[in-house]
Amino acid sequence: MSFTPRFLMSKKVQYYTAKMVMEITPESKWEGKVQAKLEGPKADQVWIILQDFFNLHKWFPSLTTCYGIEGISGQPGCIRYCAGSSIPASSSINGRDGDVTITNWSTERLVDIDSVQRSITYEIVDCNIGFKSYVSTMKVVPYNNGENDEDNGCLIEWSFVVDPIQGWELETLVSKFDSGLQRTASKIEATLNNKATNVSGWG
Prior knowledge:
By secondary structure, this protein is α+β, with helices and mostly antiparallel strands. The chain contains two helices and 13 strands. The strands form three sheets. Strands 1, 2, 5, 6, 7, 10, 11, 12 and 13 form a nine-stranded antiparallel β-sheet that branches. Strands 3-4 form a two-stranded antiparallel ribbon.
């Protein structure tokens, strides 16, 4: 597990030994990055899955639904609707408001897709989870530890930049992202490795 929370600021940031001290201003941004390693699957195999913008729910365990509401999947400008339980709705606690269960949802626009770099960037258009000015990038890269890349699997990197969210700590948010990515990577890894085993079994 690996995550890197940071604050992006328009004004001075002071550092003291191992602790970061910040002046929070209206121009402040939160930035975070997490990554997950997949043993076995190649980067190109994982990229085929992640570039499917309208079907993230098939791999992201906390999403109950994801579908396109505008444009063609994989083309910049297309928009998807996502709903699930990964981030509580901003007006509720743990997805509940009194005795009423609230669906946590967001609409997200594909900003850029790069098949060569295996990266996809999207932004939240609207949501009920408190995110404002949210932009995120998911990228698949071969894992390189100095040996044959073909045998080392790959990494999924997930980064984001967002306005500070009321009632949240940056570290808590990054932890949420990391948990979601680890579960997603495990599901993709198991699926692709099972397929590879089944294919080799026919030999």
